[in-house]
Amino acid sequence: MFKARVSPLVFLFAATLFAVGSIAGVSFAQKDAVPKPQDKLALGEDQVTQLLLLMDTNKDGRITKQEWMKFMEAEFDRLDKQKSGVINTKEIAQSRVRLSPVPTSVGK
């Protein structure tokens, strides 16, 4: 029973990360700029920071379980357009979630 609830939450968190990135207008590279090789973990740091700032409702620099769950519930409700209690592929496709390709380093 627990495993069935973990996977959707992990997926929802990942989808939320991408949504925040697209909402915040964060882009990985500009057309005129030459991409610099970066650590794969460093590529998502800005998006994670933005996400944590959104979750931190009392602005104390930390995320409580209550803040986390409130944010995730709101995101689930936002994605669940049919209000069925489940998210289907159509609802994900119609959401603002944009899966951006991870840029590769130059020369590969």
From TrEMBL:
PROSITE patterns annotated for this entry?
EF_HAND_1, EF_HAND_2
Q: Would the keyword Signal be found if you checked this record's keyword annotation?
A: yes
Q: Name the residues that span the membrane.
A: none
Q: Which keywords has UniProt assigned to this entry?
A: Signal
Q: Where is the EF-hand domain?
A: 43-78
Q: Which residues form the signal peptide?
A: 1-19
Could you tell me one molecular function GO term of this UniProt entry?
Answer: calcium ion binding
Per its record, how is this protein called by name? EF-hand domain-containing protein
Q: Native species of this protein?
A: Alloacidobacterium dinghuense
In terms of InterPro entries, this protein maps to: EF-hand-dom_pair, EF_Hand_1_Ca_BS, EF_hand_dom
